[in-house]
């Protein structure tokens, strides 16, 4: 392909990691980006292949216990699936999964920022590998609990393993660091899109494979997920380290803030504290000061919390469409395939084409290009949620889903923009902050959107779309905030400081 002729992987032996070297900031380092994408393709395939079989395995265990409690002579050969749809069984399953999700998010919430600082200090590869190891241990523990017939709630202990590496949110943030380190600012958003497309491809192709495999045995897809996890750990360990590439953008006019002499004295912990817990706390404090005292970066970070909160309302889409338009769930479920296919089309063809056209127009101002595209995307998301929430017929809801999907590149453009505004040596802290915003958004969205859906059902009529009406209102407010962002003129360091503190 043509871009392989333009962006070539440099010979590793010729790269001088010294910060004094004037590296070519137009070069894409393909090997780490390809490694990272391949790892997430494997992880995605494993996860989506095993999602339905694992759900069915947990359901069958709860179901078996339920009927044994009712009748101790119940068959040990297994209960037919249609008998497991009783409300007590489904309520217990929902409780099990709900608390599992909650516990899984706690390590990431507490450890995302410390691991981000460690990724800046010790490298991306180590933290990514630790994260995958922690997830693999947790996955293995769930299988052990099910295989040995231990109390099913013992699977909640798997969340403890996520202390190692911080869990999936930390792994995702580190992967974004790798791509950011490996790509120039002008091409970064396109690489993010292709990365997202790979995950969507896994989401499209893997569930049918998992469904076929689980007809023979529930354990085959679950073990296949473990194999994918083990291979991902190996690949992450051999992935080229990209931390040294980050300094190639050190001369870029990223947003700076002025510091007093006192601040400069506080910016580095005493030598004797280096490597200690106090040094880590010190770095965390100063990193947060740098990020949250800059208007543009703080507003963009907040947008990730709001967009994740609103996005999680889509978890109720199947139930909402089925209830509002009296569609059977089997007929409604194809909407997920429609949405995934639309997203794939967006990330593989439409958004890259738009990005290339805009890149030519704003060749010297890639930040402005990302800002414009982020603004257009958040407007599309807002309109899409509003249409879904008030649509009187299912066809209009599908149109709203299409509009919402058109804005699915928001996080890609916002991530590319915020990366260009941040000191490259602080990329680990930045992406960990974004992971923290995503985690907070998901934790808040779960109970609040569930409450909004129940409230809407009680009110009836148009209020059935309450989660999407609320999402539209929040995204509308976020749209106004995104339009408040003003970028400095390229090359103006003074302007950068003023813009950051405005």
What descriptive keywords fit this protein?
Major facilitator superfamily (MFS) profile domain-containing protein, 0% strand, transmembrane helix, 2 domains, disordered N terminus, mainly alpha, Growth Hormone, Chain: A, 502 residues, disordered C terminus
Which range best describes the helical content: under 10%, 10-25%, 25-40%, 40-55%, 55-70% or over 70%?
over 70%
The fourth-level CATH homologous superfamily of the largest domain is MFS general substrate transporter like domains
As an assembly, this protein is single chain
Q: What is the CA-atom radius of gyration, in angstroms?
A: 24 Å
CATH fold label of the largest domain:
Growth Hormone, Chain: A
> Beta fraction of the residues?
under 5%
**Gross CATH architecture of the largest domain:** Up-down Bundle
Low-pLDDT sequence parts: 1-23, 249-275, 490-502
How would you sum up the major sheet?
none
InterPro entries: MFS, MFS_dom, MFS_trans_sf
Domain Major facilitator superfamily (MFS) profile: 39-490
Transmembrane segments: 28-49, 126-150, 156-179, 191-212, 218-238, 297-321, 333-351, 371-391, 397-418, 430-453, 465-485
Pfam families: MFS_1 (PF07690)
């Amino acid at each position: 392909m043509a871009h392989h002729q333009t962006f070539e992987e440099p010979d590793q032996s010729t790269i001088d990691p010294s910060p004094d070297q004037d590296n070519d900031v137009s070069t894409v380092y393909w090997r780490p980006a390809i490694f990272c994408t391949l790892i997430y393709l494997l992880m995605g395939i494993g996860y989506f292949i095993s999602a339905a079989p694992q759900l069915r395995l947990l359901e069958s265990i709860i179901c078996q216990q339920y009927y044994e409690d009712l009748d101790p002579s119940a068959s040990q050969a297994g209960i037919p699936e249609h008998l497991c749809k009783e409300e007590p069984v489904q309520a217990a399953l929902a409780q099990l999964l709900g608390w599992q999700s909650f516990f899984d998010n706690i390590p990431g919430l507490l450890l995302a920022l410390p691991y981000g600082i460690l990724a800046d200090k010790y490298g991306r590869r180590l933290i990514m590998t630790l994260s995958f190891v922690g997830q693999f241990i947790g996955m293995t523990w769930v299988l052990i609990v099910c295989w040995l017939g231990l109390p099913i709630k013992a699977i909640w202990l798997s969340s403890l393993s996520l202390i190692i590496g911080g869990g999936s949110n930390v792994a995702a943030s580190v992967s974004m660091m790798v791509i950011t380190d490996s790509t120039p600012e002008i091409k970064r958003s396109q690489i993010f899109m292709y990365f997202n497309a790979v995950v969507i491809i896994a989401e499209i192709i893997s569930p049918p494979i998992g469904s076929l495999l689980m007809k023979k045995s529930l354990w085959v897809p679950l073990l296949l997920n473990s194999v994918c996890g083990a291979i991902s750990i190996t690949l992450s360990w051999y992935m080229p380290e990209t931390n040294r590439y980050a300094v190639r953008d050190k001369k870029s006019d990223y947003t700076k803030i002025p510091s007093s002499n006192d601040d400069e004295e506080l910016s580095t912990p005493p030598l004797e504290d280096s490597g200690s817990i106090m040094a880590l706390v010190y770095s965390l404090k100063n990193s947060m000061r740098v990020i949250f005292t800059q208007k543009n970066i703080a507003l963009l970070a907040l947008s990730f919390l709001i967009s994740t909160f609103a996005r999680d309302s889509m978890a109720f889409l199947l139930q909402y469409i089925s209830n509002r338009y009296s569609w059977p769930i089997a007929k409604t479920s194809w909407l997920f395939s429609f949405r995934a296919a639309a997203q794939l089309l967006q990330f593989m063809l439409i958004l890259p084409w738009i990005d290339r056209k805009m890149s030519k127009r704003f060749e010297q101002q890639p930040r402005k290009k990302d800002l414009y595209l982020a603004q257009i995307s958040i407007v599309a998301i807002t309109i899409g949620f509003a249409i879904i929430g008030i649509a009187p017929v299912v066809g209009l809801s599908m149109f709203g889903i299409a509009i919402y999907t058109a804005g699915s590149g928001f996080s890609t453009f916002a991530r590319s923009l915020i990366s260009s505004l941040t000191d490259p040596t602080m990329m680990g802290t930045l992406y960990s902050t974004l992971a923290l915003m995503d985690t907070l958004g998901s934790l808040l969205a779960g109970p609040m959107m569930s409450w909004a859906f129940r409230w809407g059902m009680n009110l009836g009529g148009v209020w059935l779309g309450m989660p999407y009406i609320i999402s539209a209102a929040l995204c509308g407010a976020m749209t106004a905030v995104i339009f408040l962002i003003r970028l400095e003129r390229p090359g103006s360091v003074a302007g950068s400081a003023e813009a950051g503190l405005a």
